[in-house]
What we know:
single chain, mainly alpha, 3 helices
Amino acid sequence: MDIQSLIAAHMSNRRRPTRMNAAAEDRYYRNQIILPPRLGLRLVGLITTTAGLTLLLAGVIKA
């Protein structure tokens, strides 16, 4: 099998998504960036716990 046939066999036949207007594009990217509140609180808790454990292991905090 030559390289052109191999590439043609693995190319996607999917249609490209329809083009969005400016308002739809803004909504799409706004929804992609915002973290859900529950995930945000979990992330803050994880960062706080990691920082505290790191300081404890480094000897900054006397247990």
